[in-house]
Amino acid sequence: MPKVTIENLSAIAAEAQEKHAAYKSILLVCAGTGCVSSGSLSFRDVLQKEIDNRELSSELKVVATGCNGFCAHGPICVVQPEGIFYQHLKARHVPELIEQHFVQGKPVEHLMYRAAKGERAIPLEKDIQFFAKQQTIALRNRGRLDPEDIADAIRRGAYQGLQKVLAEGIKAEALIDLILRSGIRGRGGGGFPTGIKWQTCRQASLERKETAYVVCNGDEGDPGAFMDRSIVEADPHAVIEGMILGALAVGAQEGLVYIRKEYPLALQRLYKAIDQAREWGLLGDDLMGSGMKFDIQVHQGAGAFVCGESTALMASMEGRAGEPRAKYVHTVEYGFRNAPTVLNNVETWASIPPIVSKGAEWFAAIGVGDVSQSPWGGSSGTKVFSLVGNVCNTGLVEVPMGISLREIVYDIGGGIPNGRKLKAIQSGGPSGGCLPESQLDLAVDFDTLQEAGSMMGSGGLIVMDDRTCMVDVARYFISFLMDESCGKCTPCREGLVAVHEVLTRITEGKGRREDLDLLEDLGAAMKEGSLCGLGQSAVNPVLSTLRYFREEYEAHINDGRCPAGACKALIRYTIDTETCNGCGACVKPCPTAAITGKLKQVHIIDQEACIQCGTCLDACNFDAVRVE
Amino acid sequence: MIEVSFEDKKIEVEPGTTLVDAAKAAGVYITTLCHNEQLEPYGACRICSVEIAEGERRRVVTACNYPVHKPVTVFTKSERTLRTRRVILEMMLARWPKVKVIQNMAKLAGVEEPRFAHPDRNESENACILCGLCVRICKEGLWHNVLAFEGRGPTRKVTQPFGEISPECTGCSACADICPTGAITMVDDPNHPADPARIRKAGQVVTREMILLDHQQALMRIVGTAHLVEIMNDYDLLPVNNYKFGDHPDAEKISSPHFRKKYFTQGVPDACYLGCNMACTKAVEGFELKTGPDQGKFVVVDGPEYETLGGSSNMGIFDPEWVIEMNYYCDTYGIDTISYATAMAFVMECYEAGVLNQERTGGLELPFGAADAAIEVLHQMAEGEGFGLTVGLGIRRMKKLFAEKYDADAAFLQDIGMEAKGLEYSEYVTKESLAQQGGYGIALKGAQHDEAWLIFMDMVNKQIPSFEDKAEALHYFPMWRTWFGLNGLCKLPWNDVEPEDNGEVDEPAKVPKHVDGYCNLVAGMTGKEVKPADLILQSERVYNFQRIFNLKMGFGKREHDVIPYRSAGPVTEEEYQSRAERYDGQLKEEQGLDPAAMSLAEKVAATRQWREDRYQKLLDAVYKRRGWTADGIPTLATAKRLGLDQMEGLTELLAAHGVKE
């Protein structure tokens, strides 16, 4: 294998591009975790076999890529260079696809995306609305390269930022200044300016003559969030290059990636990428022949939400229990092994190389606010979100900062399925907040979301429709956090139990009028009194729903009624005698056999046996099931 | 200094001071629960939350661990402060309604009934409230790590590994002592002491001092007795070249800071016995041996302790790795490092004085500092071959051998052969402490300092100026130290770490508070109340018994309490001159002589006469204080007072030595 040097990187990239361009078509099969679970690997195998059998392998190249992003439509295959997008692929589609598209030259329409049933097929990926409004920086290579082949990454521009810094002899101070001017703020949740972090770390390192560490936070514990995992799966070299640049800036020689064991595919690809980078001279004792020394080791976390918190993460990496400590002394000064430590999350690291190669001004121009004086002046660049819940186009999206929630949900996300209405958007993970429909036009940036009572967090966006009870949702998140609290400090450990207790009694119709004050009291003590960010923000789902959906709480307490029809203790299912035509579709799905009735006669639900699971509601094709 | 303002008070503190310490200094009360002065701030209970303002920024922080780095205003009574504390206490009260400390704090904060029912409500008065004090004292204070938290969130609890009582737990009870709710109970001691609680309480006092004071005093837990090297060197007490001198410019190389930095590999409690709260044993790990049968092996070496290091300087060797090697082989061979080192120092001086030569040492060159040859002798001693056979005889027999075989000057050998009653001296220079000369010379088993170590009292602090004072010290301290031997206890926790206020008591050298602690141990164990004087009496009885035993075996008289002159004064002119100013001064002040008018030989002789005479006067005073005859034999009255007169044959034995009453 070649040793990559400052001089030969472009030649290596060109050579890879030449090989790439020699194929008539490149078939990019998504092998992100989502598509893999819906069978993309077996599709890929059959596809490759078919190509081999037809002796087309010199013309067609199959590449298993990282996450394409449009997860709801997987397994996905994008055919380059045209960019034709195929979805919901099964092994049985292979012969037809090869014959029609690649032999006869007629792309297969019925495997293409349609905005809705009966609408015309959209052949090109770029024309699909889901992709049209996105702008990719961190996800620049998603679905575009083979994450297990470093040459393919170099072809797509990997390590050009590093090459630029080394070739032009850019000094650490200048590099930090560049990051500062780009205005980039931490993508992991807090939104702390990355440049300031690096600067503080470098200063501490110089003052104390102690070598700094750079650490990548890939713990990503939020339910429903998969931004970081997807980046590592799709483009591990982006993270590696980002960390090398960070190391250059702060003078680190060792980098660590903390990533949860529950991400096996990401781990496998990261290990492979690190090995390849070492073999190619991009990690180790003499990076690109420059004499720089830097290497990365991976630390597998056991999957605790709190280990995403910087001090707990470092405790875990040091072999201690993953519990946070007070951050009155910051980890950037006294972090891993008490040395100055820069901790950035996966997405931030992956965003660094393009900033370096394309310039701070390019990045600063994207997004909102004015970061020319200070990164605190706005939110520059893009942000990756995992868009999930009651939305048509679930998947991974990267949008410029400042885009409205409405654009994300309706333009990119395709709106709410089954003709239902949007009720709320939860942003920022379990300790984020729930925003109502009225806040849909809010600009998505660090400061606006914070003001509205939510937060950017690491980028989870959960869309909820009108059948979601906000009290129940708050209770769900509190229950998650209660399990994930490390239990070290009183307000988080006991406060979550208390809040959970109060929410439970409200959802059971046993709430008291004073409970809302009590929740606010508990919330304030947790926010002000908790040791770490987990406890301080844990109560956000409650406080934000109290702020925007207070009447729903009041309905539970005052009227013993769940307006969304979700709280089991407060609802009963009945069958409308007028509407029921006795089709019997509800009988079989009922898990407790609570529904009886003869065919073509009105059915009845036995209220004693009913467990309010709602299966009958979904099963009935005639809207005869009522929720009271 | 940085200004910290409270509602009605102001104070200036050093940067990095915590708010709790600043408040304490200002006389402002801030409620704490999981905070303890013995431990690192933890910030878990959050009861000490206070609102602060630094410039424009106002926020709530925990006072226990918030370090002051810029001027800050603390609002201990603001609504935000009070609400945070109130709600936290409400949470705790909901879970542990009967725990006194929580009830009290809740009452102070104005919490009566919690507004919600806690699913894990615990009605016990002694419930664990998860403050972590026990876990931390075990880890940070004792370094034992026997306790830890298990589970997370609401399932968090304190436990020992695998939920069982850990075999590593020494039962030191520090956790039970620090627990604010009484949640920790001790399983009874298998020795069935009369009052286990009293014993534990006495132990907890020591534990607390170890945690709080040791790092300000002797660093016993960090470097052990090795810390004495630098102190002895500073006070002219570190033996160099067979006790000729008391310091050396190279002593730094074998001092404890050097060992701590480069060799000691410890952050764990390594102790002679598992339960020790001092745990001063230290080790060097991964040491590659350069000589002997284990050459090339990587080994763990226990030590070196002070005496081993002092022995090395006594041989004129200042190579830390050589000391470690010697330490290892002495341990492995079962040879005492003190006897080996002192005997070798004697051999080296004999070599330099021409008593020995290469022919007589089997080809070895053995001047002071001959490290390679010295370790070779050690191997030979163990193998029972070569010159090792000679050194292995010990100093007393070597003196005789060299005089007979090599026609050496017996008087000179007696002066420089550092042994008493056949036992080699331990590693302290005693020339300027008459009391310590007595400590070595009168000691029943020979020249060992564990009967009395009076150098600082005598020479540095000048607390025992007269012969009577010295005699009193040579009564009390040998008896007191003997008491440790009687009880199988170690002496180090008695006075190597002292109470904070020890300097203010009447007799600080006795460390009276600790003596009281030992009384509590005895009473707790036996159920019998004892006073300090009772302990001394216990020792006196044994000590006199031993003296009589020695007498019976031919070793218990004045003639046996002789010391080599090297331990009392300068034997050679070289030695005299090395401290000429001191000796000249003494000639003038103590003896009224004019050193300027005397030759060097005259000065050496006059000094010697005065010093030897003082030693005899000391013996007179000590024997008198102990109730012994002028010949150093316990009188019959003394034996009777101590209940020893019932011993069969005692009267006859004493009578045979001329003692009738």
Task: Walk me through the structure.
The complex is a heterodimer of chains A (628) and B (661). Chain A folds into 5 domains: 9-132, 3-Layer(aba) Sandwich (Glutaredoxin); 150-379, NADH-ubiquinone oxidoreductase 51kDa subunit (Rossmann fold, 3-Layer(aba) Sandwich), CATH 3.40.50; 381-465, Ubiquitin-like (UB roll) (Roll); 470-559, de novo design (two linked rop proteins); 572-628, Alpha-Beta Plaits (2-Layer Sandwich). In chain A, the strands form 7 sheets. In chain A, strands 9-10-8-7-11 form a 5-stranded mixed β-sheet, sandwiched between helices. A 5-stranded mixed β-sheet of chain A has the order 15-14-18-16-17. In chain A, β5 and β6 (121-122) form a beta hairpin. The model of chain A has no long low-confidence stretch (mean pLDDT 92). Chain A is of the alpha/beta class and 628 residues long. Chain A contains 24 helices and 22 strands. Chain B has 661 residues and is α+β, with helices and mostly antiparallel strands. Chain B is elongated. The mean pLDDT of chain B is 93. Chain B folds into 4 domains: 2-77, Ubiquitin-like (UB roll), CATH 3.10.20.740; 133-187, no CATH class; 220-424, Orthogonal Bundle (Aldehyde Ferredoxin Oxidoreductase Protein, subunit A, domain 2), CATH 1.10.569.10; 434-489 and 532-656, Aldehyde Ferredoxin Oxidoreductase Protein, subunit A, domain 3 (Orthogonal Bundle), CATH 1.10.599.10. Chain B starts with a strand and ends in a 5-residue tail after the last helix. At the A-B interface, α18, α19 and α20 of A face β4 and α2 of B.
For the structure shown, list the relevant keywords.
heterodimer; A: 628 residues; alpha/beta; Glutaredoxin; Ubiquitin-like (UB roll); 5 domains; 5-stranded mixed sheet; 39% helix; B: 661 residues; Aldehyde Ferredoxin Oxidoreductase Protein, subunit A, domain 2; two-stranded antiparallel ribbon; 27 helices; 11 strands; 44% helix; elongated
